[in-house]
Amino acid sequence: MTGSRLVIELTILALAVFLGFEVISKVPTMLHTPLMSGTNAIHGIVIVGAIIVAGVAHPGWPMKIVGLVAVALATANVVGGFVVTDRMLQMFRKREPARAPEPD
Amino acid sequence: MRQNLIDLGYLVTIVTFVLALRFLSSPTSARRGNLIGAAGMAVAIAVTLAQRQLVTYWWVVAGVAVGAVAGAISARRVKMTAMPQMVALFNGVGGGAAALVSLAEFHRLVPEPGRLPADEGISILLSALIGSVSFAGSLVAFAKLQELIRGRPITYGGQQLVNAALLALMVAIGLVVLVGPQSVGLLLALLAGALLFGVLFVLPIGGADMPVVISLLNAFTGLAAAATGFVLHNNVLIVSGALVGASGTLLTLLMGRAMNRSIGNVLFGAFGAVTAGPAAAAETNGGTVRSTGPEDVAIMLAYAQRVVIVPGYGLAVAQAQHDVRQLADLLEGRGVDVRYAIHPVAGRMPGHMNVLLAEANVPYPQLVEMEEINPDFPRTDVALVIGANDVTNPAARTTPTSPIYGMPILDVDRAAAVVVLKRGMSPGFAGIDNALYTDPKTVMLFGDAKDSVSRLIASVKTL
């Protein structure tokens, strides 16, 4: 039973890697910095793991602290990653709607 | 039933992440994609909170509050020039979180009767190891980019031997944890060793190679997240981690190619790099450098038909991107066709220069990639090089003995005239002379980039 679960998970991993290469190779170099910060935000998904370890009953304080720190780090990763990516992407414009007059 | 709903929620998240990356294929849809990804993340967090195994929310709420405030403030305040540091930092905290999750899971599983299953054991070790290396390595990269420590490679004798020994020691500890006594103490030793390894691994890598390092650490954190997925048997972690791992790997390879160096050379090659300078100095053609004033350059630019601006990191350092855009606007107002030629490694991370110019309101259709603009240089009247050096050095094409021979460059020397804005005659990062500067059709305008561009703007206005 454990064996087949591992195989299924490895299958998912392998397919996701190929999907990743496929999708990422279509991103133009112009957007590579937002791509990096965007994927940065995506690996913030460890927040799922962090919430689980912070929310289950741990006997003793040390592991409670570990869970707390894990959640804090992962949240900073998620929030910071998406916010900074949004900040960058909103700057990419074809033309400003109305050109401001030249400041002297 | 409940578990099925939770897993369906995770599936929604997976789909939104793939869509987010898919939408990044065009600047028009990219922002929407990012918002979709963020919504997917919210779904994942919501369904995780509904998991049965959660018994307390206090620690979660406290952690989220602290992390959200810290993340939002730093993301709002960071300057676009400091984006590489910021990305390095977010990489690091993600890796650190993955390592801590595996530590807590190990602690929870170990007291149970029977051995830790091998697959979960290996996953925990990998996640702890890669996560810690990414955390410590990213912090060093951050410190280098932020100039808290010297950007130059830090080397000492037997460095690679020390690193190899440390890695071997950690593998040994890992094996002991798998087959022998499964104590939290051993895992803590492994974490400490991995942190040390992360520091030693990035210290010898020079500041200019940071685009490669950041991409690689990005891939590492992705892999750590995927390994965490194998620990918790959670598909959304596995898929997201794999997507990030693929992205980081692809960007690492791309950066290596653009710098004409193998990844191994970037990561372990700090030792030979110093000797390149003096040997290559003899490669100049012995011509003279022609210096000129802003009035002459203004006339060249204003009466040209096609101008290509070649921005380098020097432009970003001088914060001259806004002035350059003003100059371009003035020229366009006079009917000149202005475009920007962007080398893949311009800036300090992949695509950095595009972000800096976008911030200065340069419309993105004017930002042209190297492969696309190179054939246009012979039809270009003036190539205006601002704060770029090695990426314009024709020695990469012509001089097989040059250390940068074979590196893809922008063919500015094929334009009818070249204007180089430069502080002085100091060589670029590679430490070699640039034959472009002694080319008869090149003129140099010496001075601070921002200052020179402002003087050019003033001169063009008087025409």
What does this structure look like?
- The complex is a heterodimer of chains A (104) and B (463).
- The radius of gyration of chain A is 20 Å and the shape is flat.
- The N and C termini of chain A lie far apart (74 Å).
- The longest helix of chain A is centred in the last third of the chain and has 29 residues, at 61-89.
- Residues 98-104 of chain A have low confidence and may be disordered.
- Chain A has helices at residues 2-24, 32-43, 46-55, 61-89.
- Chain A is mainly α and 104 residues long.
- Chain B has 463 residues and is α/β, with parallel strands linked by helices.
- Chain B is 59% helix and 7% strand.
- Chain B has helices at residues 2-23, 27-49, 58-77, 83-109, 118-145, 159-179, 184-202, 210-232, 235-258, 263-268, 276-280, 294-302, 313-317, 321-333, 352-359, 370-373, 395-398, 449-462; strands at residues 306-311, 337-342, 367-369, 382-386, 417-422, 442-446.
- In chain B, helix 17 (395-398) links the parallel strand 4 (382-386) and strand 5.
- In chain B, helix 1 (2-23) runs antiparallel to helix 2.
- Chain B is elongated.
- The model of chain B is unreliable at 271-284 (pLDDT under 50).
- At the A-B interface, helix 1, helix 2, helix 3 and helix 4 of A face helix 1, helix 2, helix 3, helix 4 and helix 8 of B.
